[in-house]
Specification:
Elements: H1 7-16, H2 23-31, H3 34-45, E1 53-62, E2 70-77, E3 87-93, E4 98-106, H4 109-115, H5 127-138, H6 141-149, H7 156-162, H8 164-169
Antiparallel strand pairs: 1-2, 1-3, 3-4
């Protein structure tokens, strides 16, 4: 069986690659399997979420140790997720078995800040993303999204508030959103850091 390269090995291979790639081709390659991944997400969550409609979420995250690695995560929630950079959210309808709306797509934090800047004029294709970014920084994101798409879906906080009693009866542990649990640094053990771009594997 062929051994799969680790994320660290792939990172080092990418760093050593001096080939010049077309940015448009790279963009297409990154989005080629989005539809497939969304359908897989629907398959996993369709029977787990007891709502007629739910949100499909796609997050692009950087790796804290491997500088040039990006991880893409797909998951679903029965409410509107908190908006964040590098996030795409779609609305799925069970009865139609269709993704009915692209609720929002937010770029990186830096691009969001630039788009939301005062008197910034952008190309027509970026105007919707600019409006989302402005609403994000104004603190009116939920109101804007609901008005734009003609929906009444609740946010996470609103959903938990409405369904609090049934969630507790179902055994869900609800946390106070105003408090946070301190991180236990005793769980982290680092022997030596040489280069954060290089992944170190403990074979023992």
């Amino acid at each position: 069986m062929e051994k799969r390269l680790t994320a660290g090995e792939l990172s080092q291979k990418a760093l050593a690659d001096t080939t010049k790639y077309d940015a448009l081709e790279v963009g297409h390659a990154m989005t080629d399997d989005v539809t497939h991944q969304l359908r897989e997400c629907i398959r996993i969550y369709r029977d787990k979420i007891d709502e007629d409609e739910f949100c499909l979420i796609r997050i692009i995250a950087t790796d804290p140790l491997i500088k040039n690695a990006k991880r893409i995560k797909y998951y679903a929630w029965p409410y509107l997720p908190a908006p964040r950079p590098n996030q795409a959210v779609f609305l799925y309808n069970k009865g139609l078995d269709q993704i009915t709306k692209r609720l929002w797509i937010l770029p990186s934090a830096m691009v969001m800040a630039e788009l939301a800047g005062t008197n910034i004029v952008v190309d027509k294709r970026y105007q919707t993303m600019q409006a989302w970014s402005v609403a994000f920084f104004k603190g009116t994101f939920w109101e804007y999204i609901r008005h734009e798409h003609g929906i009444k879906m609740l946010s996470q906080e609103e959903y938990i508030s409405v369904h609090r009693e049934e969630l507790i009866k179902a055994g869900c542990k609800l946390f106070d959103s105003n408090t946070s649990e301190p991180f236990d640094f005793s769980k982290v053990a680092i022997e030596k850091i040489v280069d954060t771009k290089t992944a170190v594997i403990n074979e023992n």
